[in-house]
Amino acid sequence: MDTLVTSRTRVGRERIRVGTGYEQKNPSRNRARDNPSRHSNGPSFISAAGATPRGDTRHRHQARAQIALHQAPSSRVSKLIFAGSVDMETVEIALPFLVHDVGLEYAEPQSHYSIASQSMVTAAVDLLLDHRCFETPQGWVLALDPASLATFLWRPEGRGGERVALPAMDKDLPMNCKCLLSGDPAGAAACVVMVLDLDAFVFWLCRVGGGSKWERRVYSLTVFDAKDQPVERHMANRHGIAALGGKVYYQLNGYALGVVEFDPAGGEAPSLTSIEVDMVDTTASPAWSSYLVESCSELFLVVVFFQGYNVHEVAEVAVYKMDFSAPAWRKVDAIGDRVFLLGGDSIGESNFGASCSASKHGLTGNCIFFLNHIAISENFLHIFNLEEGTEEVLRPFKEFVDPLRPPFWMLPTDP
Asked: CA–CA separation, 48 vs 176, rounded Å?
């Protein structure tokens, strides 16, 4: 049963009402339900039966080449080991990497593109065979068995990876979902798994190590415009969302940052509040996309400005760090020994932002990797070097257009 919790607050030049208690569908996303082949990257089948379609030798040659390339990786680099590759040999690939569907069915292997070596492996992650898989910015993957509804968190590093058991769901999750973790599932502090339905104002919560079931919550976020007309707002649809310090932050509107605070004891409904803070200036371009990124216990906002209305070309990338003492977004010119990894589902319905160490994973620091999910049919990967002020554009999946879902990131859990 859903618990009714409501609150009201005023923020800047608009009024905002936040709370939980009723469910309202988002009509603008009905087309996603009607077209399952274009669903978000959240409920993806990362693994499937491992065999390249008969007669297609291109991927087989790619896999053989990469087996040789990754036989002796650095011991300092986190890597995922595929026990069931297309050639039935062990394949290793360094994290982080992009996952892209090869065929038209989920029961086929995927291509995995390593950004450190700029190389490709086509293989299947056999451990998660026949599971629905939801990647998180923290690197852990939420796995759901559609048959038994059993769930667990999976750490992708190493052979087999580590599992953290979770309660079973009462029923399967909706088609379009997004998952975040409030903390480290393997740490001492409490960690909450949060799954958001991208088609409705609903989310599910489960406490790692202390929860006996998944809790379903409905919520409402109502922003009143300048004419005092109510506008419903979704936590994760078409804007950034990130977890920091046990809380979840999301872009509420141009004058506020939404906050989800969880009950430490786990017995009460989460609190929905907001922080008054002006959004950064986005008038430089009529088309842009924004991402929230947690990095080294700090919250960043990344705005990708496109060249006019041409979403195939990026004019500028701006990075801001949240100053919670003000509060205010402060523009920064560097992110140090870090890389930011951006992406999302098709046409920006859900934006994904994560970070990891550069030197630890064989990457150049001060760089932002942006998988252009807005112009997804081209699969461009933009690499921005903030220190040098340069942009490199790659198209690793140019032979695979119009995929089942946009490519998505697999990340290390030791960022």
From this structure: 19
First to last CA, the chain: 37
Q: Are 11 and 213 in contact (CB under 8 A)?
A: no
Q: What span, in angstroms and rounded, lies between the C-alpha atoms of 133 and 406?
A: 14
Find, among 249, 134, 244, 133, the residue nearest to 189 by Cα.
244
**pLDDT tens, 17-59?**
444 333 333 333 333 333 333 333 333 333 222 222 223 333 3
Closest CA to 163 of 122, 209, 95, 204: 209
**Which CB contacts under 8 angstroms, 24+ apart, belong to 65-73?**
65/119, 66/91, 66/93, 66/119, 66/120, 66/121, 67/91, 67/121, 69/117, 69/119, 70/94, 70/117, 70/121
Token pair in block for residue 123: 């293989």
Tell me if the pTM is above 0.90: no
pLDDT of residue 270: 93
**Strand, coil or helix: 348:** helix
pLDDT in tens, 275-295: 999 989 998 899 999 999 999
CA 96 to CA 136: how far, in whole Å?
A: 12
Strand partners, 192: 207
- DSSP code of residue 2: P
CA–CA separation, 186 and 296 (whole Å): 17
Phi-psi map region of 130: left, alpha, beta (phi>0 left; psi -120 to 50 alpha): left
Within 64-125, strands assigned E span 79-82, 84-85, 91-94, 97-101, 110-114, 119-124
User: Partners of 376 in the beta sheet?
Assistant: none
Separation of alpha carbons 182 and 192, rounded Å: 5
- Of 325-334, 348-357, 375-384, where does mean pLDDT reach its minimum? 375-384
